[in-house]
Amino acid sequence: MPRLLACVGVLTLFAPPLSSQTSAAPAPTPIAFIHVTLIAMNGDPPAPDQTVVTDGRHIVAVGPAASTRVPSGVRRIHARGSFLIPGLWDMHVHLAGDRETRQVDFPLFLANGVTGVRDMWGDCIAPCASDNAADTSGYAPSAATVRRWKKDVATGIVLGPRVVAASNIFDGPKPLWPGSLPIHDTTEARQAVEAAARKGADFIKVYDGLEPPSFFTVLRTARGLRLPVVGHLPRGVSPGMASDSGQQSLEHLGGIATACSSDSAGVADLRARFGQDTPTGA
Fold first, then answer.
1. Which pLDDT score is estimated for 274?
2. DSSP 25
3. Cβ proximity of 209 and 234 under 8 Å
4. Sequence-separated (6 or more) residues with CB below 8 Å from residue 253
5. H or E element in which residue 260 lies
6. Mean per-residue pLDDT of the chain
7. Most-buried pick from 124, 128, 202, 203 (CB within 10 A)?
8. pTM (2 d.p.)
9. How far is the C-alpha of 268 from the C-alpha of 254, rounded, in Å?
10. DSSP letter string, 29-42
11. Using alpha carbons only, what angle is made at residue 23 by residues 22 and 29, rounded to the nearest 5 degrees?
């Protein structure tokens, strides 16, 4: 079976041991992939026998191997019989403890060609995830931990995917998950969005128990701060209402099946009466 290679995935094969990645990273090494089959993923057919030249961080030249010049001093990887694709994104991940994320999750993402992740729980109130993998009292990292991951990946101190991360989970007065944020009224909703923006959240995540007045306050406040709102569908809000009001994604397709039923009111009533047998995914 032909090997499937992603540019950063290949770079991880030549990375220093994990124990050395906490020190200052060396300057990136320019690399050229020669005689590779390029899959651009833009609708074009596979392009065989190509050369892709990088400066260690960015692609600087792409073209047929016979006519694309590779500057001196560039490391050459002869990749005939292999494929080169753009880095992949995993659009719904949950990163937790700092040590586990750096030493397990990040290397596995890169080894599988995933160069970007969308972390769906990027802050917490106590308990937060700790460095000890045996400590499962917290499900999410603090926002400060997420900021360190972003900085260390951007500067090359640690090899990892680009991380875009949510705020804490904005839930109702009785949150499902320990460490998520209970919001009781519209004042708390506004303050929560403003605090998430100050902490560097890339987007706001809403959850099932968030009450409609608070939900719409979150959307209005986030819009003013140019923060996307994503997440679950709060109870009492239809998919159409959420979409029309600016929510940009519904994770796990929550509420979609009910809304698409010819008897959506009846299905919603059944769900309310029977409740949930198991907690929903985060």
1. 77
2. P
3. yes
4. none
5. helix 256-260
6. 88
7. 124
8. 0.82
9. 12
10. PPEEEEEEEE--SS
11. 105
Separation of alpha carbons 124 and 91, rounded Å: 20
**Which conformational region is residue 52 in: left (phi greater than 0), alpha (psi within -120 to 50 degrees), or beta?**
beta
- Computed on alpha carbons and rounded to an integer, the radius of gyration of the chain in Å comes to 22
Q: What pLDDT is attached to residue 255?
A: 87
C-alpha–C-alpha distance, residues 129 and 97, integer Å? 5
Q: Which residues contact 16 (CB under 8 A, 6 or more apart)?
A: none
| Cβ atoms 189, 221 nearer than 8 A | yes
225 Cα distance to chain centroid: 21
Q: Do strands 47-54 and 59-64 pair parallel, antiparallel, or not at all (unpaired)?
A: antiparallel
pLDDT in tens, 161-176: 999 999 999 999 999 9
Per residue in 260-280, pLDDT (tens digit) is: 999 988 887 887 787 654 455
pLDDT per residue as tens digits for the range 109-138: 999 999 999 999 999 998 899 877 677 788
Contact 173, 184 (CB under 8 A): yes
Token duo for residue 136: 């499962």
Rounded to an integer, what distance in angstroms lies between the CA atom of residue 246 and that of residue 204?
Answer: 12
- CA distance linking residue 100 with residue 72, whole number of Å: 39
The 10 Å Cβ neighbour count of residue 149 is 25
User: Around Cβ 216, how many Cβ atoms within 10 Å?
Assistant: 19
Beta bridge partners of 63: 51
